[in-house]
Amino acid sequence: MAVIEEESSRESDFKSQTNSASAAAAGYSSDGYETASDTELNDAVSEPENHSHSNDNGNRNGDNDGSIKSGDDEVNSEVKEEERQEKAETIEAEVNEKALAQANDAKFEGNSLFKAGLYEEALSKYEFAVHIAPDGPSSNEVRSMCHANRAACFSKLGKYEDTIKECTKALELNPTYMKALLRRGEAREKLEQYEEAIADMTKILELDPSNDQTRRTIIRLKPLADEKREKMKEEMIGKLKEMGNSILGRFGMSTDNFKAVKDPNTGSYSISFQR
């Protein structure tokens, strides 16, 4: 009986161990505490995937951050370029302003020399002023005045061709510069360019219809212009006669066989043949 009980005890122990193993397999520990369920295990397995997804989001966020930074860099670069351009424009404006001030100073020095009768020295000052003055509308006035003043110096020196050139430069910068027109007209009169001088005086009258002195000058110049025109016609006819005689002489004729008759109404000439 004892042996059977012993064997039964062993059998009982074996069954107990078997049940314990089954219980463990069913998800319970031998001490009765709950172990991880299948769902928790699946969650644990899926965590790396979630972590990977998180990393992907992080990477995407990182990419977005990179795009934002790149955009910020472009904006900053444009802002810096605008600042550099504004600074360059400011510096250029300051340089031009300083150059214009120096040109005006040189012009004033030239004026003092002109009043003292030092025309050559005054010419140099005016030339320096024109050279140093910046290009652009802001300096057109001082440059045109310096050219006109150089013309005055040349006129005092009897260099009327140079006077006309300087006045023309002044008028290119300021077409309504009456003093330059007057000075050029006077220089043209000195060179017997009467028609050109009348054109300058007429322009002055257009700008200032009340300028009686200019009107009287035009009246005085017109007979001189007509006389010169007639003289030029006679000279031209004389040259044509010489050329005609050299050709007609081969045929026993001369220009004396041709008579020019002037029409008093039109001033034109008609040619008639005479033997």
Automatic annotation (TrEMBL):
Composition bias, Basic and acidic residues: 77-90
Entries under Gene3D superfamilies matching the protein: Tetratricopeptide repeat domain (1.25.40.10)
Source organism, top-level taxon: Eukaryota
Chain intervals for the UniProt region annotation (Disordered): 1-90
InterPro entries assigned to the protein according to its UniProt record, in alphabetical order: TPR-like_helical_dom_sf, TPR_2, TPR_domain_protein, TPR_rpt
Composition bias type Low complexity, residue spans: 20-30, 55-67
Record-linked SUPFAM superfamilies: TPR-like
Keyword Coiled coil in annotation: yes
Pfam families with a match to the protein in the record: TPR_1, TPR_2
Coiled-coil residue spans: 177-204
TPR repeat residue intervals: 144-177, 178-211
Sorted UniProt keywords: Coiled coil, Repeat, TPR repeat
Stored PANTHER family: TETRATRICOPEPTIDE REPEAT PROTEIN 1 (PTHR46014)
UniProt protein name: TPR repeat-containing protein
